[in-house]
Design goal:
Elements lengths: L21 E6 L6 H14 L4 E5 H7 L8 H20 L3 E5 L5 H11 L2 E7 L2 H7 L4 H6 L21 E4 L5 H14 L11
Parallel strand pairs: 1-3, 1-4, 2-3, 4-5
Helix pairs in contact: 1-7, 3-4
């Protein structure tokens, strides 16, 4: 099914403070920092008067997508389910923060087209840094061939071609990455600007 490309969806209908819903979609490899930045974003949005819901890929998999495996079809189904819930929430005035690896570009584009008011954040981090951070040793096992279908090692991750935001968590603090995301949301009129300090 054909859908509008990202460029046609960049013009936001949101007006600051209008109750317009939108979705901030964090994509990136496991351990890159998606959940950390998403958790930092949530209280800021609430403090600006927005209704907020966070959809974490791992949590959704446990509850909404229980029983799915890690084939491409199952991964796509999981992401489309997260996208559908985000669509329902955002069209009802909720600011949705979605955090999921979402490795395949075409599925992310489908979710973007469905939601419309969409800010894609690519949480970028090189593999050597992800291996260093990985206390469970999953990347090392995947690199040794002990874990099949591991995204970024034995399964593909398709980087976003034109995301609204790129954060590089091996070079930036959480605060620096968060500031980039907030700036993008504000520029699109979804988020009232912070009140200046008195």
């Amino acid at each position: 099914m054909a859908h509008e490309g990202p460029s046609t969806l960049r013009q936001s209908s949101g007006q600051a403070g209008s109750g317009q819903g939108f979705t901030v979609w964090f994509t990136g490899l496991s351990g890159a920092g998606k959940t950390t930045i998403a958790h930092a974003l949530e209280p800021v949005l609430r403090s600006r008067g927005l209704k907020v819901e966070t959809l974490d890929g791992d949590v959704v998999r446990t509850n909404l997508s229980k029983g799915l495996g890690f084939s491409k079809e199952d991964r796509d189904t999981n992401i489309l389910r997260i996208g559908f819930v985000a669509h329902l929430l955002s069209r009802n005035g909720v600011a949705v923060i979605a955090s999921a690896i979402s490795p395949y570009r075409d599925i992310r584009d489908q979710v973007r087209a469905q939601i419309g008011d969409f800010v894609e954040v690519y949480v970028k981090c090189p593999i050597d840094e992800l291996v260093r951070r990985d206390v469970k040793g999953l990347y090392e096992k995947a690199l040794r061939g002990e874990i099949p279908n591991f995204t970024g090692v034995s399964d593909p991750y398709e980087e976003p071609l034109d995301p609204e935001v790129v954060v590089e968590t091996d070079r930036e603090s959480v605060e620096e990455s968060l500031a980039k995301v907030l700036a993008a949301i504000e520029q699109r009129g979804y988020l009232p600007a912070a009140a200046p300090p008195k």
